[in-house]
Amino acid sequence: MNILGKLNRAPLSAKIGIGILAINVICVLFAPWIAPYAEGQVVGDPWAPGLVGAPEGDLAPTTLLGTDHLGRDVLSRLIFGARNSILIALLTTTISFSIGITCGLLAATMRGTVDQVLSRIVDVMMGFPTLIFALMVLAILGSSIPVLIGVIALLDATRVFRITRAVAMDLEAQDFVEVARLRGESIGWIMRRELLPNAVSPLAAEFGLRFCFVFLFIATLSFVGLGIQPPTADWGSMVRENAAAISFGILMPLFPASAIALLTVAVNMIVDWAVASTSGVRNDN
Amino acid sequence: MTIEQRVISMHPAVNREVILDIRGLEMEGFSGGSWHKIVHGLDLTLQRGEVLGLIGESGAGKSTVGLAAMGYARSGCRVTGGTVLFKGQDLLRMPAAERRRLRGLKIAYVAQSAAASFNPARRLMDQVIEVAVTRGGRSRDEAVRDAQDLFHRLALPNPETIGFRYPHEVSGGQLQRVMTAMAMACRPDIIIFDEPTTALDVTTQVEVLAAIRRIVEEFQTAAIYITHDLAVVAQLAHRIMVLRHGRLIEEAPTRVMLAHPQHEYTRSLWAVRKLAKDPEPRGDELLKVRGLLAHYGTVPVLEDVTVEVERGRTVAVVGESGSGKSTLARVITGLLKPASGEITFFGEQLPRAVKDRSKEQLRRLQMIHQSPDASLNPRHTVREVIGRPLEFYFGLSGQRREQRIVQLLDMIELSSKYLDRLPSALSGGQKQRVCIARALAANPELIICDEVTSALDQLVQEEILKLLLRLQGELSLSYLFITHDIATVKAIADRVVVMHKGRVVQQGTKAEVLTPPHPAYTKLLLSSVPDVDPDWLNRLLAARQPAVSSVAS
Fold first, then answer.
1. Where residue B55 sits, what CATH number does that domain have?
2. Residue B542 lies in a domain
3. Under an 8 A CB cutoff, do B438 and A185 touch?
4. Structurally, how many domains does chain B consist of?
5. Would you say residue B549 lies in a domain?
6. Residues B379/B420, Cβ–Cβ less than 8 Å
7. B67-73: Cβ within 8 A, 24+ apart
8. Phi then psi for B442, rounded to 5 degrees?
9. Is residue A285 assigned to a domain?
10. Could you list the residue range(s) of the whole structural domain that residue B111 is in?
11. How many independent structural domains does chain A possess?
């Protein structure tokens, strides 16, 4: 009830964002039932136009968005791709934030040696170009989805660590943390109850952004053949595989690209609203 | 406001040209999603060479009015009515470019925090002469020579070379005077001083006040002097206006106002100065700190400090910033490990570091900080704040915890409707009360109060001090009260410890410390506290001629 009421008062941008996200979530949950064709089924010629964007005078198209470079239905692959792309991105971001926030808060609270060790490890990891680092690990461990998630999460966690540490360092210098220390509170309590609630706003904004970057990173990895392996559909690799089509005036690569863009915008609009409504630090209810 | 109250005829600058004339000023401020009135139809006139004191508590609209006198409204504020006539021209209605030409040149501003107002990356001189050169039409050499002359007049050390330093290389009091020189550089008609001495120590404040007064008189500059301290404004102003909630409460020439304040509110502005506690006889020893030595890095901050607190008594530790009084609190609470010395509390020797102390030792020793804003977690409700020590030290939960919280709220004179409020929905005084309740929740023996009233308005200060005294009586609490304010010492202390540069220079009962003969530093400190008496500064400066420089530096 409370959540519904809050939703009702949300600005239009947030409502649009929630709408788009809801459609995506439905695709994630019910892909096999919604999609007109199977994930890897060839239904026609390569890059056959669909109902959208078909040149006049063509034979009546059989699919809505046309087919890809192997003649598979783009709409079906978009729906199945949502499942892989979103779930992987969500899982990756969640893991990276859990690691980054925990280590960042730990470094800020403990300071001294703990901070030094964690920060220098992060420095080293950030010293490598991200792509090279990922390629290296994936080449050694082989490219499977769990490894992919682990590697990207770890790489992203370095950035989350930096932000969390900076925010928490500021907070840690405040008197209320000193009061907690004087009371004899444990490190865990100070991290969880004193620091974390005050660090939520900047971190939530970062979450929305990181979530979207993960798509692009997976797409990059897919391009060099270490991302999500075919025939599994994901949006990033759909763009990559079909990028050449754009030079023939075929709209097909724009569909997965728009899907990424739409979700990115949607997530950011929701995050903006969430941050604005929680950062006020006052009793509004 | 009646005609009788505006007794301009008693004023020395009588019949001079009216240089600033504010009529029916109405301003609004944006908060909580809508615009609220913050200045209600204020009238203000300023004649050439006149110093007008604007006084009131925080939120009275003093600074807002001061800025409006320059035709400026801070972001989140707007002028909705009235006129601001500067030499007959309406600042509010003239084109922005024209208004900008007047600012700095004809109307200058001296801010509260000079340290925050100077650009740290540029030398002082460049900033002091900037307006004079870019808009005043003077050559750089000429402006530099003039600035050096001003530095000299403002009694700054090394007036020839100080301008070539960076802001961080000079002290706070010097920086405030440099800023006054900057305001004076174009010989403006009006200078607006916005609490220029509030952030300074009393001994420094005296120097800055004397310098400002001298230079304003020399150049016959009109000034609006904004402050919350009646004693300060009494030294400078010809006329005082008391503001509250954006309305004029009372206006009169300084001497008339001080001798016969008309309004109850005006009288309450020096409320704390009238509080006085009768000192109690000595009691049992509760805390004894012996031979304390502490460093920050290699810099010694405490040297051989020995202090004693008795059960049910209050020890006030006084001194300027940098005297080591807050460090003393950090060492006693265990936040800073001393290099040597011992702390005996409640019959046992306390471990040096907070993490080595037992829960019981921590519970008996509580601390209240200076800024209630910073010491309350902005995301914890009053219930969580007060409930946590109950849970942590006594394992209280559910109904029993709730009852105790309400009981504690009752002790600090807040009703239970505040239970679910976040700190942002409380006033400064209420926040400090919640901090007191949090300390009381631990059933402590000793509370260290670190400047607990200095961030608050006079009236609220008085309430908080009275509350602390009442609680002391009811619960036989001991306080170690750290303050720089002598009026607070008079109000609350049984014994007094005077600190200077990390050493205890004097300690004893309140009567012993506050009555002469004093050691040199105590004398300097006590004499620097302004009296609500317009002749105080004159007398002090006359008496001090030879003595000040030798002790203060």
1. 3.40.50.300
2. no
3. no
4. 2
5. no
6. no
7. B67/B109, B67/B192, B68/B22, B68/B25, B68/B27, B68/B39, B69/B20, B69/B22, B69/B44, B69/B107, B69/B190, B69/B192, B69/B224, B70/B102, B70/B103, B70/B107, B70/B109, B70/B192, B71/B99, B71/B102, B71/B103, B72/B103, B73/B27
8. -85, 5
9. no
10. 8-270
11. 1
Q: Give the separation between CA B207 and CA B209, rounded to whole angstroms.
A: 5
Output the six-digit token pair for B204: 């420094």
- Residue B227 and residue B332 in one domain: no
Interface of A with B (CB under 8 A): 174-176, 178-179, 181-185, 193-194, 197-198, 281-283
* Nearest chain A CA: its distance from B359 CA (Å): 7
Domain boundary pick from B206, B237, B270:
B270
B173 and B249 inside one domain:
yes
* Beta carbons of B334 and B354 less than 8 angstroms apart: yes
**Mutate which: B377, B392, B427, B443, vs A, most A CBs within 10 A:** B377
DSSP H helical segments within B154-253, as ranges?
172-184, 202-219, 230-236
User: What gap in Å lies between CA A117 and CA A85, rounded to an integer?
Assistant: 34
> Do B248 and B292 reside in the same domain of the chain?
no
Closest CB to B354 among A182, A193, A194: A182
Chain-centre distance of CA B547, in angstroms? 26
Residue with tokens 């040209």: B17
Q: Which residues of B touch A194 (CB under 8 A)?
A: 377
- Same domain, residue pair B239 and B280: no
For the record, the structure tokens of B528 come out as 């620097």
Same domain, B416 and B306: yes
Residue A284 within any structural domain of the chain: no
Whether B553 maps to a domain, the answer reads no
Q: Which of A175, A183, A282 sits opposite B422 (nearest CB)?
A: A282
Do B156 and B289 fall within a single domain? no
Note if the pTM is more than 0.90: no
User: Cα Rg for chain A, rounded, in angstroms?
Assistant: 22
B144 inside domain: yes
Residue B496: both structure tokens together = 């007094």
Q: Looking at the structure, do residues B278 and B341 belong to the same domain, yes or no?
A: yes
Could you tell me the residue range of the domain that residue A12 belongs to? 2-278
Give the C-alpha separation, A104 to A99, whole Å. Answer: 8
ipTM above 0.85, yes or no: no
Beta-strand relationship, B446-450 and B299-310: unpaired
Alpha carbons within 13 angstroms on the beta-carbon side of residue B485 total 23
Structural domain ending residue among the three candidates B208, B238, B270: B270
- Helix axes of B458-475 and B428-440: crossing angle, nearest 10 degrees: 20
CB count in 10 Å sphere of residue A43: 16
A183 CB neighbours in chain B (<8 A) are 362, 388-389, 392, 442
Question: What is the CATH classification number for the domain harbouring A97?
Answer: 1.10.3720.10
| Tens digit of pLDDT at every position of chain B (553 positions) | 444 443 443 444 456 788 999 999 999 988 767 888 889 989 999 998 899 999 888 778 888 899 998 888 888 888 998 999 998 889 888 898 888 888 888 999 998 888 888 999 999 999 999 988 988 888 999 999 999 999 998 888 888 999 999 988 888 888 888 999 999 998 999 999 998 888 788 888 888 888 888 888 888 899 999 988 888 888 889 999 999 888 999 999 998 888 888 888 888 876 666 777 777 788 888 999 999 999 888 888 899 999 999 999 999 999 887 788 888 999 999 998 999 999 999 889 999 999 899 999 999 999 999 888 889 999 999 999 999 999 999 999 899 999 999 999 999 999 988 999 889 888 888 999 999 999 999 999 999 999 898 878 878 888 899 999 999 999 999 999 999 888 888 889 999 999 998 999 999 998 888 888 888 888 888 888 888 788 888 888 888 765 544 444 4
Rounded to the nearest angstrom, the gap between the alpha carbon of residue B157 and the centroid of all alpha carbons in its chain is 25
B340-345 and B348-349 as β-strands: parallel, antiparallel, unpaired? antiparallel
- C-alpha B82/C-alpha B340 separation (Å) is 64
Domain match, B151 and B239 both = yes
